[in-house]
């Protein structure tokens, strides 16, 4: 393929260096053309290590580069809206790290700005680009595990000792709901193909970590009495799991967001492992993004999906702080 989408990366975050930039490099459609940091030496060092040809000492310089087609934004959460606006104004397509914003209203403004500028906006939930989730949806729809009665999903890890981590800055959008709770929320919405009606969430607010939610556990209510029971955290042993429970069986995904893509279907006929190709979901995300930009396909996940996911996150955080069940509006 001769055509390439030229990517600029706003910031040298770990997720960019470890996963997304290598995903761009491995893609059929993209090239990592430039990277920016507020510290030029940091940008230059990262550019050298990843063979990126251009380094900038400010985000503004990268945004102004006419050769850049799209930007990836892995900045702290409170900066997502600002730099999405600036990228859209410059005519750049935007892949923004999750969560896309600090709240649903910000997400709505971002979607509107990108639509008005005629650029594509996508939220960087890489996991859902692996074809196994379409397979799992088909198994559910086939009735093999019966009627769905509930989902359980957990995403936890422990980096509580890293006092300088941006995840522990409340004003910057820190906390476990924003960082990893967004995954169980997203996957439940994806598999059930509907929006939850209410959220009840209990959280551990840690004074040692600027009172962000270091742990959270909750229930999202869907129609028909179905619920997602989820847990997320940044101060617990690692988990990365999903279970879909039906009346006649269940589906277990031991590594639901990162790691081994294989999953299991358990019914009265026994337990079978469904082997999956070990695909780079970051690369799949990049290639789909380019196909959308080039008009070759419609986005698998419309920008409005990011607004809907943020509505649920808003309700979860409100529930933690008010210690109450929060109804989730389906309007707007």
Automatic annotation (TrEMBL):
<feature type="domain" description="Gfo/Idh/MocA-like oxidoreductase N-terminal">
    <location>
        <begin position="5"/>
        <end position="122"/>
    </location>
</feature>
<comment type="similarity">
    <text>Belongs to the Gfo/Idh/MocA family.</text>
</comment>
<protein>
    <submittedName>
        <fullName>Gfo/Idh/MocA family oxidoreductase</fullName>
    </submittedName>
</protein>
<dbReference type="InterPro" id="IPR000683">
    <property type="entry name" value="Gfo/Idh/MocA-like_OxRdtase_N"/>
</dbReference>
<dbReference type="GO" id="GO:0000166">
    <property type="term" value="F:nucleotide binding"/>
</dbReference>
<feature type="domain" description="GFO/IDH/MocA-like oxidoreductase">
    <location>
        <begin position="133"/>
        <end position="252"/>
    </location>
</feature>
<dbReference type="Pfam" id="PF22725">
    <property type="entry name" value="GFO_IDH_MocA_C3"/>
</dbReference>
<dbReference type="Pfam" id="PF01408">
    <property type="entry name" value="GFO_IDH_MocA"/>
</dbReference>
<dbReference type="InterPro" id="IPR036291">
    <property type="entry name" value="NAD(P)-bd_dom_sf"/>
</dbReference>
<keyword id="KW-0560">Oxidoreductase</keyword>
<dbReference type="InterPro" id="IPR050984">
    <property type="entry name" value="Gfo/Idh/MocA_domain"/>
</dbReference>
<dbReference type="GO" id="GO:0016491">
    <property type="term" value="F:oxidoreductase activity"/>
</dbReference>
<dbReference type="InterPro" id="IPR055170">
    <property type="entry name" value="GFO_IDH_MocA-like_dom"/>
</dbReference>
């Amino acid at each position: 393929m001769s055509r390439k989408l030229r990517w600029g990366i706003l910031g040298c975050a770990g997720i960019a260096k470890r996963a997304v930039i290598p995903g761009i490099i491995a893609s059929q459609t993209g090239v990592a053309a430039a990277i920016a940091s507020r510290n030029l030496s940091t940008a230059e060092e990262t550019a050298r290590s990843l063979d990126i040809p251009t380094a900038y000492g400010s985000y503004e310089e990268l945004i102004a580069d006419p050769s850049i087609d799209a930007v990836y934004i892995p900045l702290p959460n409170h900066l997502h809206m600002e730099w999405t606006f600036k990228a859209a104004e410059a005519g750049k397509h935007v892949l923004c790290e999750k969560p896309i914003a600090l709240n649903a209203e910000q997400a709505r403004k971002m979607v509107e700005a990108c639509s008005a500028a005629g650029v594509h906006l996508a939220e960087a939930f890489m996991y859902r680009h692996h074809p196994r989730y379409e397979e799992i949806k088909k198994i559910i729809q086939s009735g093999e595990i019966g009627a769905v009665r509930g989902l359980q999903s957990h995403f936890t890890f422990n980096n509580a000792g890293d006092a300088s981590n941006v995840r522990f800055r409340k004003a910057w959008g820190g906390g476990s709901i924003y960082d990893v709770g967004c995954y169980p929320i997203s996957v439940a919405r994806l598999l059930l193909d509907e929006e939850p009606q209410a959220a009840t969430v209990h959280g551990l607010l840690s004074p040692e970590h600027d009172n962000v939610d270091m742990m959270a556990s909750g229930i999202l209510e869907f129609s028909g009495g179905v619920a997602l029971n989820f847990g997320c955290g940044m101060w617990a042993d690692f988990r990365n799991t999903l279970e879909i429970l039906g009346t006649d069986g269940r589906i277990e995904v031991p590594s639901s967001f990162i790691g081994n893509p294989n999953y299991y279907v358990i019914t009265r006929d026994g337990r079978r492992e469904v082997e999956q190709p070990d695909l780079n979901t970051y690369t799949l995300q990049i290639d789909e993004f380019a196909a959308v930009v080039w008009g070759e396909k419609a986005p698998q996940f419309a920008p409005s999906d990011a607004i809907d996911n943020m509505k649920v996150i808003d309700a979860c955080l409100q529930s933690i702080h008010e210690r109450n069940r929060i109804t989730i509006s389906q309007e707007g």
